Amino acid sequence: MKKIYLIIISSCLASSAMAGGYRVALQGQKALGMGHAGVAMTDSSEVIFFNPGGMTQLEADTDITGGITLLDGETLYQNELTNASAKTDNPLGTPINFYYASRISSEMSWGLGVYTPYGNTVEWPTDWEGSHLVNSIELKTIFIQPTIAYQINDSYSVGFGLAYVNGLVDFNRNLSTSLADANGDRSNVTIEASSVDAWGANIGLMAKVNEELSLGFNYRTKIDLEARNDSADFQNIPTSLQSTFPDTTFDADLVLPAELTIGLAYKYSEQTTLAFDINRTFWSAYEDLTVEFDNGAGTSTNPRNYKDVNIYRFGVQHQLNDQWILRGGIYFDESPVRDGYFAPETPRNDSIGYTAGASYKYSDNLEFDISFLLLTFDEIDNSYDFYEESGTPIPFGGTYDSSATAIGFGLSYRY
Amino acid sequence: MKYSIKHVFYALTAATLITGCEAEFDNPVGDVSSYSSGTADFSTFVALGDSLTAGYADGALYRTGQESSYGAILAQQFALVGGGAFAQPLMPVEATGSLNFGGTDVITDDRFFLFPTGDPTSPVGPARLSDVAPSLVISTDISTRLTGPFNNMGVPGAKSFHLGAPGYGDSSLAAIGGGTANPYFSYFSSADGTDMITDAAGQLPSFFVLWIGNNDILSYATGGGVGIDQTNNFDPTTYGSEDITDPNAVFPSTYTGLVAAMTASSAKGVLVNIPDVSTIPYFTTVPYNAIPLTAAEAAAGNAGFAAYNGGVNAILGATTPEAIQRQIVFVEGQNPVVILDEDLTDLTSFDAALVNMRMATINDFVVLPTASKLGEDAGGGFLWGISAPLLDEDVLKESEVTAVEDARTLYNATILAAADASADLLHFDASAMMAELSTSGIFYGTGGITATFATGGGFSLDGVHPTARGYAVISNAIIDEINTGFSANIPHVDPGTYTTVFYQ
Predict the structure, then answer these.
(1) Interface confidence (ipTM) of the complex
(2) Which of A5, A83, A360 to mutate to test the interface with B (most CBs of B within 10 A)?
(3) What topology does CATH give the domain A2-414?
(4) CA-to-CA distance for B166 and B163, rounded, in angstroms?
């Protein structure tokens, strides 16, 4: 515990924030305490997200685990040439997770997971320097995943979950760097799509090599959120252009990239378990953000050109006594954003996450969890070079710095 | 339980530390302590000049334009390094540009906006509010003076010699109507008998910017050269409103007097020179060959001018340069506009039809307001610029451009010499900056402006005055001069956050 304490202090001194892109890795309090590593862990029904193959290896016949995380992130922007500066005013994020796993037979288990792995809420000051790219964005998704797992033999088990995905997006930006109505109020557009449906799959394999070592493999498929004929609201349009920019509908696709995770859990002693995961996120599927308006605004193509990246996660948990389990972890998260593509709606750079957590066993059935995350981002000088007006590129750049902190509360009920 | 209390303590401590961690830049731009005024003192800053100093834009002086005057922008940045308040003679918030004196109109022009045209290929076009939507006009009554002093001493229309003219701010309809007083100055002058330099220098400025002399050529140029080039006429009281001020004696003596008055309080300052008219869209937007014709139209035009061409050749001789210059021949495609040129030999005594006409060349500038006139009916079925020659005020001819440039070159030499003569004075080359704007555009990190009319972002809809964004770019350039010349460290503003043109 003392070590964790020191890590937290030194990271405060050292730096200045969420995972790359719009992925929010907060899908289990127990895993978060261990650097969000868990592909080879089998200590709760959080396995439904992390590795459905682990479900048959849970100790209890029924394991209900759930929690909520309070996530507070901010991003700063400045440009030394123009002396501009801005700071996001993001509302508190509240990702949730709920997992139910139950044994059907000695070989089969079934379960249900509800979780929110993608989200992004960034609110820059209205009409800030980058307002032609984004004033505010809110992206929310919820995954509902019925899952089954099968124990092949003593060593191997597999699991499969079918995820129903429901998303909403609400995005506002100014139409250009200058267009305003007669009062000088900037012309802007809000696109809003709610209840966009999609489906995905979550596949896992768990291998118990021996009493000490477990290996895990997990693959979550790419999901395309396709907004069709949703509302685009044009505001503060000068009278003379209102016939060109009436309120209309839009089509847009947003990709939630595939993820592959491999990892291990090693029981170092009766009390202590180590975990190590590598996540590969196939962000290269996010090539551009294209919004097709059904009016004079036409098609807005915004290249993103993300790259595939890895996240390295290390975690340790220690059974202190009959009541307490302590956890600590760290992860290294590479940004999928390439130079020149740094758009302020996902203003995130390479980051290091420091995590800590604990579980308190109240009774044989009931356990309470708490977790902490401190996410520190490297300060970055970068720009978005693919915005054009009348064929002239107008790059927007500067220095960005972000930070995020989270505290999570959860509980497990087992019988 | 001993353990668990300790653990709760640790957990709460950790939570406190976490919430105390916020993103922070290594070198935050807002860090005031890193800025400095250098050797300059900005405690009392006065900007003295004409419409460009007043914050005039879109053919009018209106509130938001004034709030983005270069003086106001500079003062906002100076405030980071000890600068004081910057009072401006602000127009009412809702006012649209025109002025009246107790109900009698004295300035009738209101702001330009981009209005719908009804033409799908070009859905908006510039027009004055007073011309298109007179019901929206709100005129300002200037008969009740504002109470100064005012740090922004910019008066639209002022020429160099006006600044020392007593009575230029006389608040009476007789003086304004008689042309001895300027209504913009009448609105905020300290007294009837004062002059601009007295009100400006009387504030004992510690720092000033002087940008004067534009109107000494510009009113001549925007008027298409109808005025008189008064070079070597040393009595400005005999000048008309659209004349070129003498650059040999009147401008130099006036200018050095103004500089002496402004520096009497040991002020440091920046002297700004005069841009070239060929770099501003008022003169460059309408091409000299603005007339598209079909083959049939060209043939009809040529038939109409056959007698003129023949008559000119007969009298002047077909091979003489002037006869060749005066031949009016149309072809299929783009054709030069036909213009009156009073410099040509008057042949009307031979034949009243042989008026002083020629086709324009690339060295003649068709002024912006002429655009709406081209090809329109001039009366009797004649079309402006084709079968009816454009008038003197429609075109700044080559010889007139030369007159303007000759005077400007001498003005700028005076301004540069004045700046060079004192270590307390810096020179800001606005001429070079406008040339850069008109050739390559000016980029500032988060965007850019060009000199293209209406869409370039640099010039407002009058084609002469900058947009708020343009004024911000000018302000940054002046800041650069100050930072270099006075060892100061004053931050720029982001021009991208300033407005450009306005749509109605």
Answers:
(1) 0.72
(2) A83
(3) Porin (2.40.160)
(4) 8
